[in-house]
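Quick question: what would this complex look like in 3D?
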Amino acid sequence: EIVLTQSPGTMSLSPGERATLSCRASQSVSSSSLAWYQQKPGQAPRLLIYGAFTRATGIPDRFSGSGSGTDFTLTISRLEPEDFAVYYCHQCGSSPITFGQGTRLEIK
Amino acid sequence: EVQLLESGGGLVQPGGSLRLSCAASRFTFSSYAMSWVRQAPGKGLEWVSTIRPTGAYTYYADSVKGRFTIFRDNSKNTLYLQMNSLRAEDTALYYCAKLRGSGVSECPDYWGQGTLVTVSS
């Protein structure tokens, strides 16, 4: 099983700042099978990034994904008030399919 | 836009059964793989099961294998999850998710709002 470890667990930043979220895999993940989701309280997850770096439809360009192998990063260049949420990385290329434990991005 | 509407959740005793449904619309349901993903209260996301477009191939997490069955009716644009021998640890919000393609190595791109399953005596 591929274990995805996200860091930090919680991140406190202010609007306008840059956020860098990390996702480390216990073994190599195909870049085509790495995604990032945003989840707000009481809502379903929303796809932000797939294939490690491709933005999903309608996702603002302040969101970007990068990385390969075992290390992946989600960057939010300038935080907007609506970006404060929980973020999950996810690998769907190796069974069992796994999610990271999440990074909570909170307003400082 | 894609719509996924789950139903069938509720309160069930340990050892009981439930069948979840997910009504899909605004996309060609029969062309896409589909998954169930659950989220225990206050916890993260856990993959449960995936089914390929024709229904011929299914995949399960070890935690539900032998107890849960995923199936679909492409004529009704509906995905199902039959859950038997339910345990307290199955308590969660169950999401239906559409995968980006027909293969099981595709990640979900759309999610329903979820249906809550509570297993308790």
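Answer marked as accepted. The mean pLDDT of chain B is 97.
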